[in-house]
Amino acid sequence: MSSTVHPNVHPGSSESKHNTDGAYSEIPHPPPGDHRKCGRRNSFLNTGWNAPVPSRDGGSLEKDFMRKPPYGWQSEGQLFSPKYYSQCWCGNVVFEFHGDPVDAKHCHCRQCQHLHGAPFQWAVIFPKTSVRMVKNQENSLHFFSTQRRRGLHDVPCKVSCDQCRSPLFDEGRNTVLAYPSSFKFPDGKVPVDFQPTAHIFYSERVMEVPDGVPKWSGHKGTSELLPELTTREGTLPKDKGKSGEGQIDLQ
User: CA distances (Å), 210 to each of 120, 213, 215, in order?
Assistant: First the structure.
């Protein structure tokens, strides 16, 4: 099966052309030695799922969804080759991932702040057919619909462990937004493909992140590209440092 993934903000969002116009810091991130020599992947890999993407129309009408991607499904021809694993804090729920993420981002929207209890969310995007559940001990998998504000599988929805409450990923219509903090990397180091290419909804931020990564006021590629806090590394935010330090006007 061949389809297209649009690496843009939340799962199921519409396609947009990446716009790089605008002012932002020249601080390198990631370090120059880690810069990619190729662009993000933009298509579904053949992982042995030959049916329509489950729940691609959203909602809760997908029958037997627990036996379909991204949950407990079988790969035809054994084409699914795990590269990464993620698990909840207590270990009751484990997922495996085929290939590399198609994109990575930090989201500063108020919903992510509230649901994660953090200043922003860090997520990587995988095609739904590149994700598979390998453990669900004590039936610990838990779903929460942010649209219906109820604990049920209604896509798009948030997926977590019902025992330790660890968030694992957001299930969208075509993709999964997985949280790298739950991944178990063999060497303990975060791979380059997991490093964010954008901050989104930065207009709703509660803290400045002067890392040189493009910062969009809303959706990536379709909103205003905001200026960086500063072009100098180590400069403190406004009103937090000595006289003369703080926010710099890039205009």
Answer: 14, 8, 10
DSSP string, the chain: ---B----SSTTPPP------S------SS-GGG--SS----B----S--SPPTTTT-BS--TTGGGSTTSS---GGG---EEEEEE-SSSSEEEEEES--SEEEEE--HHHHHHHTSSSEEEEEEEGGGEEEEEEGGG-EEEEBTTTTBSS--BSEEEEETTT--EEEEE-SSEEEE-GGGB--TTS---GGGS-SEEESGGG-SS---SSS-EESSSTTTS-EEPPS-SSTTPPPTTSSSTT-S-----
pLDDT at 43: 63
Mean pLDDT, rounded, for 141-156: 95
- State the pLDDT confidence band at 14, using cuts at 50, 70 and 90: very low
Summarised one tens digit per residue, pLDDT across range 56-65 is: 999 999 999 9
**95-104, 136-145, 236-245: least confident range:** 236-245
CA–CA gap between residue 206 and residue 230 (Å, rounded): 16
